[in-house]
Amino acid sequence: MYLIKSKFKHLRQLYLLPLAIALVGCQTSLTDFESSNSQISRLNTQLVLNQAILEQANKQENTVWKIKADNLIYSEDKKTATLNKVVGNLWQNDKIILKISANKGEVRDNGNIIILKEQVVASDPRNQGVMESSLVEWRPQENLLLIKENLNGFHSNLEVTAREGKYFTDVESLEIEEDVVATADRPALQLKSDRLKWNIPQAKIISPGAVEIVRFDDNQTVTDRLVGDRAQFDLATNTATLENNIELISTRPNIQAASESLTWNYQQRVGKTERPIQILDRERQISLTGNKGEVNLQQQIAKLTDGVRGINQLKASELYARQLTWKIETEEVEARGNVIYEQADPQARLTGEKAVGTLGNNNIVVTGDGKKQVTSVIDN
Asked: How many CA atoms lie within 13 A of 126 on its CB side?
């Protein structure tokens, strides 16, 4: 039953509507609202109430939600209530799980639909998440908040914006879509996608579609940019796991990497993969490929394993090994396991168990393990 709280006790039953509603003040004490004087008048056959409180309870007589409005006007057919200066709470197991405020509102469909307009703010005290919008449709019975325009969401170190979204109050999950942008401060990061799902208590974000991640340094200069077909983020560990058509572009050092799977720690600037990976230095025309790998951009070191091939296109040389470590800035390499080194000028082919040197100038020394001889072929 829909209940209007007023000092006119003898009028309570007269003005009951076919609604099942209960609303509470969001950040203001309800006892203050209940003790305030309410006035009832009729204007143009409309019922008008000032300082009204609307309230809905379930079959166990537990409060489901409450709303307080500075001004409430019922339509002539008594099916719609128009509200001004709205604050409200959603309850679950005798605890507030959502706080709402807005400049304007409407109560429809027996209290199952509440429209909130202009400077809408919704906050969840369980996780301290806050959402802002200009138009929201609240469905308390469905545990659903439909955010229909200009979504802004805030939580701890993360801010998200989108055209629209849905907040599921029972599981504390926010789904947003269209022009999605998420930004973080520590480290400075920007994420763009067409849609995201944010499981707030678990600090997890899922991007089921194409995603772009941009990392900035303290001077707001771009250090890294990643793209992929989909991604998952663990905000607690500052990691992103990207899948399919991944490209990593770094400005310091100036390299690119590509793979079909990559776990990226955007705070430490470390990428790891169990899938084939290619690393390319376009300026020096050096490329490395391996079946597994790790690239640490902070330390400027790449480690590739399970079959590695290094190519210097400028010097027409190639290096093969089971595993290889590349110091990106100095071009130093150390390769181990079934090493093969080939160069075109002068033409040579060396095999052994270990190779060290600099791939950029073809200064490579191949050695054995003491059991096998180094084999060299030089064609003059």
From this structure: 17
